[in-house]
Structure formats: C-alpha cells, structure tokens
Specification:
It is found in: Cytoplasm. Its EC number is 2.1.1.63. Its main location: cytoplasm. It is an enzyme of class 2 (transferase). It is a single chain. The chain is an alpha/beta fold. 29% of the residues lie in helices and 13% in strands. It is globular, with a radius of gyration of 15 Å.
Length: 163
C-alpha cells in the first residue's frame, strides 16, 4: 500500500489540499468543490514536511513574486494526458493559450481538441500546472475544474485580466 501524505494551505483562492507520495513528490493540488478534486481519505498521513517548498512557492506566487514553480511532481495519467500536462507546463506566466493551441503543441489533430480539454480538466495539479491559462478559441473563460471565479482570480493575479 502506498503512503499518501497531505497538508492544507490557505490561499487567496481558498484552502488548497496538497498530496504527495512517500518520496515527497507532489501528486495533487485541489480546491474545495473542484470537479474531480481530492478529499482526505482514511489512511493518509498529515505531514507538512514534504510540502515546505510547495508552500513557500505558492505564497510567493500569490504575492506576485514567483512566475515559475520548481516542484517535483508525480502524476499518474495516460501517455496522452501526460503530453497535454507537459504542454501546460510550457505556458508562461501572464499568457494564455487555447485548447486548439495545446492540441497543436502535442501534435494532435483538430479533432482531438475535445480530448485535450478532457485531459486539461483532469489536471491533478491546479495552480502549479497552469490549466487556468487555457481559454476558449474566442477568448472566453471556459472550463476550469476549480471554478471560473478562481480562474478569473488567477488570471487577474498574473495580469492577463484587469481587476
């Protein structure tokens, strides 16, 4: 049985639930009410030690002092999802891309845009893997598992939207 470590961190977008594997690699970051979000399960062990770097970097991000997270991740997605998530990691702070652009970055066809959207929606690492930077082809704020209000707050923090 694998040990899951967890902690909670307060943030401007609500409490964040962070989980890590036994090595301390971040496995998820979710918010209350998140579609496909995590909740603390029996057998998990609360331990703040492995999350110090994540807590420091999140605090700096929300203070407007950090643009790129440097954390070790351990996610468990299909090869397709991992490619989509890697493409998300390349979207810079303060920028947005469309679902179609993510599909093109991974070499997927235009017909795969819906599948790309599904992979983005299944991103287990909100905030640190910037799925909030993906918008609709017409510039609309669509599809954020953490809720559109949080997406708008994150994009406002990054200077994409005016507050």
């Amino acid at each position: 049985m694998t040990t899951t470590l967890w902690t909670r961190v307060d943030s401007p977008v609500g409490p964040l639930l962070l989980t890590a594997d036994a090595t301390g690699a971040l496995t998820s970051l979710s918010v209350p009410g998140q579609k496909n979000g995590r909740t603390v399960e029996a057998g998990w062990r609360r331990d703040t030690g492995p999350f110090r770097a994540a807590e420091e970097q999140l605090a700096a991000y929300f203070a407007g002092e950090l643009r790129d997270f440097r954390l070790e991740f351990s996610t468990d997605g299909s090869a397709f999802r991992e490619r989509v998530w890697a493409a998300l990691d390349s979207v810079p702070y303060g920028a947005t891309v469309t679902y179609g652009e993510i599909a093109a970055r991974i070499g997927a066809s235009r017909a795969a845009v819906r599948a790309v959207g599904g992979a983005i929606g299944a991103n287990p690492l909100l905030v640190v893997r910037p799925c909030h930077r993906v918008i609709g082809a017409n510039g609309s704020m669509t599809g954020y598992a953490g809720g559109l209000e949080r997406k708008v707050r994150l994009l406002t923090l990054e200077g994409v939207l005016q507050g």
